Amino acid sequence: MVRIKENIDIAPYTSFGTHARVERLVEWDNKHDLVEFLRSEGAAYIAPGSRWTILGEGCNTLFTKDFAGTILRSTAKGIEILEENEDYLIIRASAGEVWDDVVAWCCERGLWGAENLSAIPSSVGASAVQNIGAYGVEAKDIIDKVEYIDIATLQEGVIKGSECKFGYRESIFKHELSERVIITAVCYRLSKHASPHLDYGTLRPEVEKSGDVSPMGIRRAVVAIRDSKLPDPKKIGNAGSFFKNPILPREQVEALKAQYPAMPIYEVAGRPECLKIATGWMIDSLGWKGQQMGRAGVHKNQALVLINCGDATGSEVMALAERICEQVSEHFGVEISPEVNIL
Ligand SMILES: Cc1cc2nc3c(=O)[nH]c(=O)nc-3n(C[C@H](O)[C@H](O)[C@H](O)COP(=O)(O)OP(=O)(O)OC[C@H]3O[C@@H](n4cnc5c(N)ncnc54)[C@H](O)[C@@H]3O)c2cc1C
To answer: What is the pLDDT of residue 168?
Structure first.
């Protein structure tokens, strides 16, 4: 079934909760209905020259103005087992599934691989677009393949995880396949063998509190840490980390580290010539934590998280973001960019 809503306020569909009028929102529960719709009455909405985009749970998207076009949003649910042997299980989750429900499904069955990614607010579709990551694990580590509909032909396609060009919050879906495909499902490979990843932040001590080193035990620990640190978007509008952590040439980072010894730096897997630096630390050291500009602010515990302090407009959030970018650039000589998708 396809549902069309016209001239709606998009605020309830996003975690930032900024208001913007959207000309049309199209939702579907089943990819066959979507294809049928896009072949017929919906064809004009995605025709060349027309404005459209895709939204999942809206947790990484900031609307800064009204959107004169069509928002496509999958509400298709379902998790099914595609393949199983004594070592692993491959599951297919529909794009409109809530990511954390998939993690819970895996952990309840004792399957390994998704537990560190617990409680990331995301749709399944965006888990692949964003290559979501937390506590030393990224979606790419478990994505086996991604199923999609090609906008130009309306044919179904599949791309292997290894071909998705995954990087830090990056994938082929943000580049070559941007505005060319609608992801309909993501297939994940989960291990039946214990493979805990506990060496990131405070995860190990949190897991040790309960002594439960099972997928469910790790999930509980991750949820507890996240609940203690991150604002709940249902109470305070936000999109998690607003900025990316820049990956810079090793020499540049070493020079920064010499100047600012407290600056946290991280190795980047597979890229020994680079290091990653913590944007949150730079913003914090500029005194932004807990500060407000207009009705937008910087979270009191997490300098990387910009918040809607109550009825902020998207432009107010952007004005704050731009001010922070300028100051980081002036002070540290580092250009930071948003992780959030700005519309
Ligand atoms: C409190 C909080 C904590 C967070 N913590 C983390 C974290 O720890 N790690 C992390 O990685 N992120 C984190 N985030 C960011 C966010 O959870 C992720 O970016 C997530 O993937 C967003 O999912 P979404 O469905 O809401 O995406 P949206 O914001 O709805 O969309 C994101 C992008 O995906 C595209 N897209 C969505 N669905 C499809 C589809 N079916 N086909 C094609 N393109 C599609 C959209 O066009 C857009 O470009 C956090 C956010 C919040 C609010």
So the answer is: 86
CATH entry 3.40.50.170 includes domain 2-74? no
Cα 124 to Cα 28, 185, 287, 289, 322: the distances in Å are 15, 7, 36, 31, 30
**What is residue 268's predicted lDDT score, i.e. its pLDDT?**
87
Q: How far is CA 124 from the centre of its chain?
A: 10
Strand order of the β-sheet with 79-84 is 79-84, 88-94, 181-191, 143-150, 156-160
Which positions are annotated as active-site residues?
169, 241, 339
For residue 173, what is the DSSP state? G
What's the pLDDT at 71?
97
What is the predicted pLDDT for the residue at 201?
83
Check pocket membership of 291 for ligand 1, CB cut-off 6 A: no
pTM of the predicted model, to two decimals?
0.93
Q: Are 203 and 135 in contact (CB under 8 A)?
A: yes
Residue ranges covered by each domain of the chain? 2-74, 79-229, 237-342
* pLDDT given at position 47: 92
For ligand 1, atom 49, the nearest C-alpha belongs to 341
Q: How many CB atoms lie within 10 A of CB 193?
A: 8
Task: Round to whole Å and give the CA distance between 32 and 192.
Answer: 33
- Written as six digits, the tokens of 11 are 């605020």
CATH code for residues 237-342: 3.90.78.10
Which residues, 6+ apart, have CB-to-CB distance to 87 below 8 Å?
Answer: 191, 192, 193
- Assess whether the region 2-74 and the region 237-342 belong to the same CATH fold: no
| Contact 34 CB / ligand 1 (< 6 Å) | no
Ligand 1 centre distance from Cα of residue 318 (Å) = 18
Q: Which fold has domain 79-229?
A: 3.30.465
Which residues of the chain, if any, have pLDDT below 50? Answer: none
